[in-house]
Amino acid sequence: MTTLAFQDLYPDELGHCYGCGKNNDHGLQIKSFWEGKETVAHFEPRPEHTALPGYVYGGLIASLIDCHGTGSAAAAAYKANGRDMGSEPALRFVTANLNVDFLAPTPMGETLELRGKIKEIKEKKVIVEITVFAKGKACAKGSIVCVKMPASMMPS
Ligand SMILES: CCCCCCCCCCCCCC(=O)SCCNC(=O)CCNC(=O)[C@H](O)C(C)(C)COP(=O)(O)OP(=O)(O)OC[C@H]1O[C@@H](n2cnc3c(N)ncnc32)[C@H](O)[C@@H]1OP(=O)(O)O
Questions:
Q1: What predicted TM-score, i.e. pTM, was given to this entire model?
Q2: Vertex 21, ends 51 and 62: CA angle to 5°?
Q3: ipTM of this predicted complex?
Q4: Is 1 part of any domain?
Q5: Where is the Thioesterase domain (predicted)?
């Protein structure tokens, strides 16, 4: 049995996001999964994601944290409600606040691992803490406040 990523369960009309949209051919298309109580995603930076030669661009790292965070928030909300992800009515979250600490230079040529922990969960708000590892070393840490997507943002 294949386990679908959180982002594979987003409806097509919400699949355009640069970081996580399954329908964005130029995007990062990150894929997040549960691993026990944590959420996990892997991403291999491409040459165009370079900051200084040999090191990953911080904006890419922030984008990965952003989209792993909003995906984790949606997954956690479904779980807290005892529902299958993707079932209606939809539980969708956007970024209200994103903070990133860059702890160490992140080397190119490695698969990055993002591990998320759900720190707080309310009906309208989920806070996720995410650590980004390269070769097992923590290179960045982010905290993201995710809030239920306003109806006005839903594509018509
Ligand atoms: C199957 C699943 C489908 C999923 C599909 C998903 C598609 C995703 C697509 C990919 C997306 C990828 C990601 C992207 O790129 S998403 C794109 C970037 N994000 C945006 O454009 C969002 C723009 N902002 C807004 O629309 C509003 O400001 C939002 C909706 C965020 C808040 O609106 P509003 O202010 O009216 O909310 P509230 O008053 O009801 O407050 C609710 C709670 O939130 C707390 N709060 C609010 N703001 C902040 C803040 N800045 N820092 C800390 N906390 C904040 C607030 O204190 C309260 O907490 P509490 O008092 O309850 O404790």
A1: 0.97
A2: 30
A3: 0.95
A4: no
A5: 54-136
